[in-house]
Every structure is written in structure tokens, then in C-alpha cells.
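Question (not urgent): is this output format expected?
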Amino acid sequence: MRLTLIAKLSIATSAVLLLTMGLFAYINVEQLDKLLFEEAVTDADKLGETIVRTTHYHMLENNLKRAYQIIDEVGAQRGIIERIRMINKFGLVTHSTDPKETGLYLDKKAEACSMCHSGSSPLVHATTMNRSRIFRNREGNEVLGLAKAIYNEERCYTAPCHFHPKEAKVLGVLDVVVSLDPMHRKVYAYRNEIIILTILQIGLIALCLTFFTQRFVNRPIRRLVQYAHMVGSGELDTRVAINSGDEMAELAVAFNDMTGNLKKAHDELADWGKNLETKVEERTRELRAIQAQLVHSEKLASLGELVAGIAHEINNPLTGILVFASLLASDSKLDPALKGDLDLIVKETQRCAGIVKGLLDFSRESVPQKRPASLNEVMDATLTLVGNQSCFHDVRIIKEYNPDIPEMLLDPHQIEQVFINLLLNACHAISGSGQIVVRTGFDRERAEAYAAIADTGCGIPEEILGKIFDPFFTTKENKGTGLGLSVSYGIIEAHGGRIEVESTVGVGTTFTIWLPLMHEGAPEGAAADSSAPSP
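Got this back:
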């Protein structure tokens, strides 16, 4: 572990240093090369200016022999100056340190002329860098060439020895070619020094990193490993000594806390084993509480039977009242003043009949008539039934069905009743424009299918979310009996499923119905939709 950790840190650090220092060295060498080249251009320009100034007097005296002799003496510095030549405005090489070039005419596209003659009209003035060029000589060495213009000064066109037109701007060009070998030697020497220093620095940093990693990381980690083995062998009173204030100290503190928690848990388990009888008594009390809850459920079931009996007894007179009230309302001899009262009697009697029907549905233990059916088809049939109601006119319904859901054993009529209740509740919660998303899918691992109905309505407050399935609990004031969700809950439980609800006030509500996949004909290769629906 020690060698592996040190090796990893050393290699990673060395690689980062090598990359950064290599980039830094490359930039430095490039900058040095650029600076030395600019210095070489400046020196060549100064050399050309010196030659022009030195030979200027002899040119005015028409002493060409002495002027050319000066050029030859300057050009005799072999190893530094490669060649010096003088070119007149017609492109004739009037003199050169290379005798073979004297008397030759140069084309405007030649290397010494192209900088100023590249356009339609020749340049009279050009920057020093634009007048310089790099090329290779006959031996293949890299050299620097710089063209220095000889301008037509007043003393030139007024001199008695020879005549130059006053309109002429440039009389000729002095072309100086110098060797770049000294510059390259400096660059190569600097580059080699940078490489050596980089290698030495990386080696020194790797040694320092190895030393400090060994001291500040490996030793504390080995000590922690030793104490971990002691704890693993059962010595839970072991504590790691803290000698520093860094992250290793925090790790030691966490290790000591973990050991303390383990010892505490061990002691608690020992106490729990000793006090098992007390635990059994506590569990017995919990079972008695559950039993009391079951007894309470049986009482509620008895109450449901009582409600069913009362509902049957109330239903018969309600039916008579509704029939006779309807007959009286349709009688042509009826006083028109009594027409509104009879309509109110009919309306309220129908409302009472609806409440009684809800009571009967809640109290009746209806066994589902299960048969193979498609959950998507049941949902489509439900949407067809409720889609034409007025409350759905401004509501956009979005279907997100999973077509791979296998057929299931269920009672389509009861499931349709559940879907109707949930869709109507969603529409009433929106109370205007909005949308309802109907989503279906299934989970192969849990062998369950789901149908989710999500609305963008007002939402259900958290404090009443746990009461919405209680009988007669409603938030619709006089618009409902509070039995729809209770009946739906009973139908889904009779199918072996469950209803889940998630709601946020002002955002919307999602009811999710989970039903078991119990049909043996379900395809084995169907892809499971394991993602639970979200509101």
C-alpha cells in the first residue's frame, strides 16, 4: 500500500509538472527565438544603415572603387555575414561580395525585391520586419536577409559628379544577408538548460513528495489499519492517538467515533438479550393494540350492515315520493305556482336517492367479476364516457399509455367506476382550464400494473390528505356525498391493489392505482416499466 500510494502520487504529480513545465519551457523557447530573431533583424538593419552611411560620401565623390572596397571589407566577416550586395533601381546588381552575382539583373519577384514589389506599385517605405526574410543558403543553413533602401537625398541629385532625377525616390537597395547560426546556438543552449532544469526539478519534487507522503499519509494510514484489525478482532476499547490537526486527525476522530458507536451497539445488543422478556411484553402490548384496531374494524363493518338496512328502508319511501312528485309535476291541472315547489321536491328527492345509493355501494360487499381485460382499453372507455361532460370542455386530456401492459384479471365495470370517480374529482379540482395526464405502465419485478391520473388543479392540503378515503368526508360542500373515494378504495382493495396519492397545493394532485398482474398469459419478454409515475 505504501509503495502503491507513493508511486501514484509521484507519477501523477510528475506528469502534471512535466506537462506544465514543458508548456512553460516551450513558450519561453518560442519567445526567446522570437526576441533573438527580432534582435538579428535589428542588427542587420543597423549593419545596412552603417554601410549606407559609410559609403555615402564616396558615392557622392563618385569613388565607387572605395565604396565597393568598404562593402567587401565588411562582408569579409565569414560566419556572421553571408553576403552583401548593392542593387540599383533597375534591378542590376552593381556590386556583391559574391563576384558571381555582380552584373546580374534581378526580377521583381526575386527574394530581395518581392517585399516592396508585391503590389501594383512599389513601396517606398516598409517596416523593418516586412523588409526581412528567412531562407536557406547553398549549404542548407538558415540565413536572414534584409533589404535596405538607398533614398535619393538632396545631395544626391545636386551633386556635380553625376545626376539623379529629383523625382526619383529610391536610387537602389542594399541587400544584407547574415547567418542565423549564432541565434540558433543560443536557442539550443537555452532549450537544453530548460530540459535539464525541468528533469532535476521533477526529480527533486518526486523525492520530496515521496518523503512527505511517507511521513504524513502512509504512517497514519498504516496505524489506522492496525487499529482497524484490532477492532475487528473484538477490542472495541481501542482508540487512535491524535497527533496532528489535519484531515488525518479528522479521520482518526471519525474512527474513534465509529468504534465508540460499535461498542455502544454491542452493549445494547447484550442488554437486549438480557432483557428479552421485557421486549416480548412490549411486543405483546403492540399486538393487543392491533387486535383492538381489528375489533374496531369489525364494529365498523357492523355499522356498515346497519347503514345498509336503514338505506333499504329509506329507499322505498323515497322512491314513492319521487314517483308521485314527478306525476304531479307533469299533471296539466297543476297550479303553475306549485310547479317550482314540486321541482324542488323532485331534485332533493333525487339527491337523497343518490346518497342512499352511495350508502348501499359503501356497505355492500360486491365480489369483483374478474376476467382478462386490458387496462388501457378500460381507461379509454372511461374517457369516452366522461369526456363529453361540460366540466371537461376546457380541460386538455393527455394520454401516456404503455402498450406492452399484458391483459389482467379484473372487473372492468368496477375499475371503470373507480376511473370515473377519479377523473370527475380531477375535473372539479381544476375548475376551469387545465390539463389531466393519464399514464399507464407496469413493474415486472413487483408484478404490478399502474394507472395514474394527474391533474393541474388546486391540490389537497396536507392536513386533510389522510382523511380523503374516509366515508362521508368531502371538500365539495353540497356537491358530493363523500363516498366516491371510499367506494373506489374498497373496489381496489377487493382487487388486491392499492391507491396512492401525491398532492401539492396550487400545483395539482396525482392518484396512482396499483393492481396485481395475476394473468398467466402475460408475455414473459415484455419490457418492465420500473419507473413509478410522478405527479
